[in-house]
Amino acid sequence: MAIEFTKYHGLGNDFILIDNRSSDSPLVSPEQAVQMCDRHFGIGADGVIFALPGTGDTDYRMRIFNSDGSEPQMCGNGIRCLARFIAQLEGGETLGKTYSINTLAGIISPRLEAEGQVRVDMGTPYLFAHEIPTALGNPNEKVINQPLAVAGKSWLVTCVSMGNPHCITFVENASAIDLAALGPQFEHHQVFPERTNTEFIEVVRPDYLKMRVWERGAGATLACGTGACASVVAGVLTENCDRNCTVELPGGCLTIEWSEADNRLYMTGPAQLVFTGTY
Hints:
The protein is an alpha+beta fold.
């Protein structure tokens, strides 16, 4: 294939970044992305992200193929990695620099911060059932603490879209969840026509959550930025947490704010260079 790449990770959620500024279409196919993401026979990653030319007033356009070849609308950890990759392509980082990036979930604006941190304006959450989408409840109502039968058990779930679908359930002990068994059953449940990401949340304090996630198209990952945002929204809606939270994931912590002033989610977390190479 002979394509240059750079690998970054955001709290262990790792991505292959490709300079795609020379073309409006991804330089590799979904099938090739699957091969690249293979952890035994390829580079190894949760997904491949392409930095494409911007459209309209945006600086860049982002597309991503998951490790199974599917294409999500957005990825919170991925866009932090993309912001630092773009700075690398442009010759170096400038603190406070904000990029306008067009994604399938709308325009997202990451800002470079000190010590490899990136603060991202993740936009406003979508809360009505038809927006997520899910067949749970009335299409024009919020899905809050709705019962959902999975693996012979009734789970109370709250559904949120951050441009991609999330199903959040609060549990006593997130570490005890068998992700490999439960994750696929939630992801492919018939009430989610486009499948779903699933977050299992343990409330440590109103300002501190522990999260484990099964990502649509990627499986169990060490972190999920949109999932952390969706989980704080779900926590506020169910009166389980504050609007400003630390969310602890297996790969580390994200700071999430759901602003009461503008209804937007702000996510701050790291993005770290791993290595560069040619595949």
